[in-house]
Amino acid sequence: MLLKIILGELAPDSGEVKLGDKLSVAYFDPLHAQLDEEASLADTISQGADYIEVDGAKKDVLSYLGDFYFRRNAFSRR
């Protein structure tokens, strides 16, 4: 519920929500409803492109996955 409030999908019951100026929220559906089970990890986050946009900057997909300590052998695994 908190994530939906942060994303603006739900209104808080009371008070107000103030988001930081540099807040960037990204997540995958924990139920995997939107994920293609045949796609690799790299393809899932980039729709097959070599680069993705992170905070307005172009970033290499493999480098981005490395930032989260994914091992290189997991990048193309299905």
Tell me what the structure shows.
With 78 residues, the chain is an alpha+beta fold. It has a domain of 48 residues. Helix content is 23%, strand content 10%. It is built from three helices and two strands; from the N terminus they run H-H-E-E-H. The chain has a two-stranded antiparallel ribbon. Strand 1 and strand 2 form a beta hairpin. The longest helix is centred in the last third of the chain and has 7 residues. The radius of gyration is 16 Å and the shape is extended. It starts with a helix and ends in an 11-residue tail after the last helix. The relative contact order is 0.14. The mean pLDDT is 82.
The largest β sheet comes out as:
2 strands, antiparallel
Helix content: 10-25%
In angstroms, what is the radius of gyration? 16 Å
| Low-confidence blocks of residues | none
The best one-word shape is extended
Number of strands: 2
How far apart lie the N and C ends?
Answer: 30 Å
**Helix count, per DSSP?**
3
Give the tags.
single chain; 78 residues; alpha+beta; two-stranded antiparallel ribbon; 3 helices; 23% helix; 10% strand; extended
Strand and helix layout:
Blueprint: H1 2-6, H2 41-46, E1 51-54, E2 57-60, H3 61-67
Antiparallel strand pairs: 1-2
Q: TL;DR of this structure?
A:
The chain contains 3 helices and 2 strands. With about 80 residues, the protein is of the alpha+beta class.
